Amino acid sequence: MLQEYILDIIHTYEAEIQADLICVKANQNGIIAQAFANQTLYIYNDDVTQKINVDFEINSIAYGHPLSMNPQYIYFFGQNIQAYDLEKQQIVFTLKNETATCGDLNVWNQICIAHEKTLVFWDLRTLQPFNCILAHSKRINTCKFNYTGKQVTTTAYDNYSRVFDAYQLEPVTTICLNKKNHVTSSQFTNDGKHILLSTLEQPLTLWNWIDGQVIAEYNSINQQRYFIEPIILYNDIPVNIIFPNDNNYLQIFNVLEPTQRQLRYCEFNSNPVRVEKINDEIFLLYADKQITKCKLQ
Questions:
Q1: In what order do the strands lie in the sheet with 110-115?
Q2: Three-state DSSP class for 119?
Q3: What's the count of helices (H) and strands (E) in the chain, helices before strands?
């Protein structure tokens, strides 16, 4: 079933910069970070804009966990790993290591860092690594903790998605797709029992990662050309999956009824439109230099 879904536009941000966009991230307080390929970041906090220049190339960024010791930190992953304190407006520490492709933080003040095929776990209280895992046979493109911070889900260019315990060396489980599917992202649901997996091909799939079974499939309008990650909106239980496609359509799937799909055209002039969650009501749509804060009516 296809129908139009109305969006309520709350605010629009646009950076005055000539550089390629790397990514956009937001925390639960609505503070938005926009990273560009020329080592520049813009931080939007309501009507206040802050510009940050970093001395190395950034591949991705992430906020501290909202229940951790330092939720006001934002982390830069690239040739180094740096933590920036948004309140003090200064770099608080730098981890000198191999180039990081991506990373994530958990509630226990631990950080998971992907270096090509390897996952490295650090304790940020001591600034010491405590585990190193050869996770995939090709480069890792996503790694994300579950809500408890005990497990990490990864995807890589070897077309596998895996779940690891932060203190073990072998995967807890491996989801193997066929060679024609190119895995782009995976994320835990809030209850930690399921993983939402996206590929460049369709569909999105919801997995019970414990027994390796597909729970639901959500068919996209067309094959993706870009690594676009979906978001999940909750009302105690998962309600909607939001997933833009290459034609700048915002696809909204009902989690419990996969065949129900609603569309809204995104009025962006450039591809691809991507999505980032602030909370279960408000999210961001972004492309190039433009960010639109919105919610579903």
A1: 102-105, 110-115, 118-123, 128-134
A2: strand
A3: 0, 28
State the DSSP string of 198-224: EESSS-EEEEETTTTEEEEEE--SS--
Dist. CA 106–CA 151, nearest whole Å: 10
Q: Using an 8 Å Cβ cutoff, are 76 and 64 in contact? A: no
* pLDDT tens digits in sequence order for the chain, 297 residues long: 445 567 888 999 988 888 889 999 999 889 999 999 999 999 999 888 999 999 999 999 999 999 999 999 999 999 999 999 999 999 999 998 789 999 999 999 999 999 999 999 999 999 999 999 999 999 999 999 999 999 999 999 999 999 999 999 999 999 987 767 788 899 999 999 999 999 887 678 999 999 889 999 998 776 676 788 999 999 999 999 998 877 777 888 999 888 877 776 666 766 788 999 999 999 999 988 889 999 987
Say if pTM beats, i.e. exceeds, 0.85. Answer: yes
Beta bridge partners of 49: 44
Tokens for 156, please give them: 């890589």
Using a 10 angstrom Cβ sphere, with 0-12 exposed, 13-18 middle and 19 or more buried, the burial of residue 11 is: middle
